[in-house]
Amino acid sequence: MTGLTDQQLYAGFIRAGRRRTDPALLEREPEQAQLRQVVTALGEGRPAVVSVTGRPGFGHNALLRWTARLAEERSIRVLRVSGSLAERDLRHGVVAQLLTPLGELAERSLRALRGQREPDGLPGLPELLHTTRRTPTLVTVEDAQWLDAASLHWLQALVRRLSTGIPLALLIGRTGLDPHGPEWLADAAPSARLTRHLTVRPLSPRAVADLAEQICGTPCDEGFATAATEASHGSPAILHAALHCFTEAGHRPTADRVPQLRALVTGIIGDRVGRALRGLSDEATAVLRALAVSGDLLNFPLNCSLAGLRTVRESRLREALEVAGFTTPDGSYERIRMPVARERILEDTPAAERAALHARAAHLAYRAVADDEDIARLLLQAPPIGEPWAVHALCGSFGAALRRGDLARATTYLDRALDEPQAPLQRARISLDLAGAQAVAAPEAGDRRLATLIHTPGEGEPWARLRVRALDMLLARGDDSWGRRAAAQALATAHGSERDDLIALYWYAAEAGPDATDVPVPGVPALSERPLAPAQAGIRAWQLAARGRDRTTAAELARRALEAGNAAPVMPRLAAAKALWLTDAATEAEDHLAAMVAELRRRHSPAPLARALLLSAELHVRGGRLDAAERVVEDAQRALPAAAWHPLAAPHLVTIRTFIALETRRGDEARALLDTPMPPGIEHGVRWSYLLYARARVAADEGRWAEALELFKECGRWRLRQQWANPIMLPWRSMAARACLTLGDKEQAQRLIREELTLARHWGAPSAMGLAHLCAGSLDHRESPADAGASLHAPRRLPTRLAYAEVLAELAGEEVTKGDHATATRLLTELSRLTVTPADSRLAERVRRLTARLEQPATPDDPTVPEEWAALSPAERQTAELARRGLSNREIAEQLGVSRRTVELRLSGTYKKLGITSRKELPARSRPTERDVTDGV
């Protein structure tokens, strides 16, 4: 509850910024002790000269006023004077202030000072010294940085005349950091034993906490004090003003209220800066604006040149800016002290002047050999320069920003580079790089830019490569339908290698459409059976592999595409890598893929890189390297965040993430991924079938076999429309067959598994045939599972290691359940040859449970098992056995590594098949064995 509107708060901190009351003197004990000694010595007739300096708002004038009050308490006469910016050019203005309290004694001198002509000598000085001999006097000079020259000369004369017989103390306060006092005081050559120089420091967080407690009336926590110190730079005046407004708004000094305090401090500093700016000379204002624009790039002489000042006393300007509290010296540089001040200075600079300053600053920075990105930051605020170096600096800065992961800044640099006049081909290349970067934050804008480039006319090989790369990048984003039309249109004017590549990209997009066909459209030639062009070879290899035909030719064509390197577009090479992997040349395919990933990282192509990484993650999953897959998926999403994926490509990402979550025992995460709302239109892309398969896997995992069967079959229909018959791509038939068996449809299950066996033999890859035979053995009870498991030993580098291992584990579980420990042991031995990581994956946990069961003594099966028991699936029998033992649904879920919902569904199916209504009836109907059936299915 603040009790104030935003407008009232703003008005409050402006009023607070102008308060003239002295802030509390905190952490000023050392300075107060020395000033107390001065007052005591003055009472004893000993003179002194003391300078007190500090940043604006640090309280040096407050110390002078405190000393004056102390002197008055001890009956010492105090004469107070103050310099001001408005009276800096008023001759003898401060001297007149000093003499006025002397009354008639100084009347003649005051008339002389106010006269038209220059007075002779030092009017009033003898009178002051005369009265001081009788009356100890303290003279305080506040804001001495604004003393007029005549008054300065007068005070120097006063200092020279001080001696041990004159009881006068001169106390000078000024803005700045002068550890040895002001220069004019040193020129007066006072005795060293008479002089003291005090510098006021910023407040520490501890002092700030005390101040906050005094003003707010409640204790201040450490986080708030630290933040307040940082925001205010330890300035007592700013803190005093801000905390009063803060308290009036009803806030308490706690860490959660730091944002409100920062807003107040920023407003107060901004208001003080604005008032201080109005008091500067035109020259000082011009230089300050130049400093605000150039930052730390240019030294002070160059900033004077930037401001348009050719003949100027630099030392006087520097002093003026330092005294006003705007800058601090740093060798030949001047640094603006606070970011808030810099922002306010730039705000007060007219827009046209600000743009011109940025342009001139960029020129000077370029001549001073500044870093490209420093020059580029200036160019962002400048109008077009019209010089080649500007484009070079902006493009170099784009690369630097990309390397550190600042994509937003990188796109800004290239967008600005396009404002510069340049050759059409160079402009097109910059636009292509910009479109690639926009794929992350503004993908639709990037797609439009790529579409323009695809249809940009231009003769020669560079233009041809640029158009091909633009279409390649567009397809990497996933819009296959649009890419197909764009390729067909571009082919009308293409020739040579450009035409070859466009034909390949057209057929890549056609393969990804909802209804793939080999029939060409008018103007687009069909791919030859053995194309020579690398890009076309890659697409043809993918067509053969997806259809499960001519494995030898597919491998040959895939190698032709991959060996061309970056001379071929990216997407055909990715298709070739997948095709080569499907031929069982997994190591070779993954090596080529790793090389492509490295190449795309160097090229800073987010969309193609993300697609390459996702393919790599898929291969890791299928190879059982789940930990590596998860790392690569994270890399893919860093390259291209999930929100930037095209709706037609997004299902593939969700599918891979779902598989990883399932296999690493994160079922809730898998379900959440599949329940995430998908953008409209994704069902029209070929990757929709991946999502259907993932949903079917989750449904099967949860025991929803009827739903899983329909999803597997729908996935299959999509694959068949694409003519993608190769079973090793997605083994939907064997999974659907398992669902059919569970639901009691053995005839359909056998038909599906026979189809898979036939297609696997037709493709001929050992991994495809081995997996199909293994699945047939686990599903067809006419063949012994042991024989199926022993019929084919998996090679060490089996590409489909995860699927193969899962079926082996299924077989082993069946044998353990039946009591055939010897066969189960052989299957587990075979399974041990297939490493699946990480060690806590679902498969690894399942193997540990099977091994533990094998070590338990076998118990013969009860020959009187009811007939209904045979109708239960293995998963239902396991769940029912644990429920019979009295375990709760939660305990069963934990032991089997499934969700509670899965347990409920399994028990519901069991009750229906056994003709019972509750778990209380299970002991009478279930198998009376003491084996602990704990392996997950």
Structure, explained:
With 937 residues, the protein is mainly α. Helices cover 62% and strands 4% of the residues. It has 46 helices and 7 strands. The chain is elongated. The relative contact order is 0.04.
In short, what is this structure?
The protein is 62% helix and 4% strand.
* Shape category: elongated
Cα separation of the termini: 57 Å
Mean pLDDT: 85
Radius of gyration, in angstroms, nearest whole number: 42 Å
Strand order of the largest sheet: 2-3-4-1-5
SS summary, helix count: 46
Helix content: 55-70%
Strand content range: under 5%
The biggest beta sheet, please? 5 strands, parallel
Q: Helix/strand-derived class?
A: mainly alpha
Count the strands? Answer: 7
* Low-confidence residue ranges: 1-20, 781-796, 858-865, 926-937
Question: What attributes does this structure have?
Answer:
elongated, 46 helices, single chain, 7 strands, two-stranded antiparallel ribbon, disordered C terminus, mainly alpha, 62% helix, 5-stranded parallel sheet, 937 residues
List the helices and strands and how they pair.
Blueprint (H helix, E strand, L loop, with lengths): L5 H12 L11 H15 L4 E7 L5 H14 L3 E6 L10 H7 L7 H8 L10 H10 L2 E6 L6 H13 L6 E8 L7 H5 L7 E5 L5 H12 L5 H11 L3 H13 L9 H21 L3 H13 L5 H7 L7 H10 L3 E4 L2 E4 L2 H10 L2 H17 L4 H8 L8 H16 L3 H11 L6 H18 L1 H12 L6 H17 L2 H11 L5 H16 L22 H14 L3 H13 L6 H13 L3 H18 L2 H17 L3 H14 L10 H14 L3 H9 L12 H14 L3 H17 L10 H11 L3 H18 L2 H14 L5 H6 L10 H18 L2 H12 L9 H13 L19 H11 L4 H8 L3 H15 L7 H4 L12
Parallel strand pairs: 1-4, 1-5, 2-3, 3-4
Antiparallel strand pairs: 6-7
Helix pairs in contact: 1-11, 1-12, 2-3, 9-10, 9-11, 10-12, 11-12, 12-16, 13-14, 13-15, 13-16, 13-17, 17-18, 18-19, 19-20, 20-21, 21-22, 21-23, 22-23, 23-25, 23-30, 24-25, 25-26, 26-27, 26-28, 27-28, 28-29, 28-30, 29-30, 30-31, 30-32, 31-32, 32-33, 32-34, 33-34, 34-35, 35-36, 36-37, 36-38, 37-38, ...
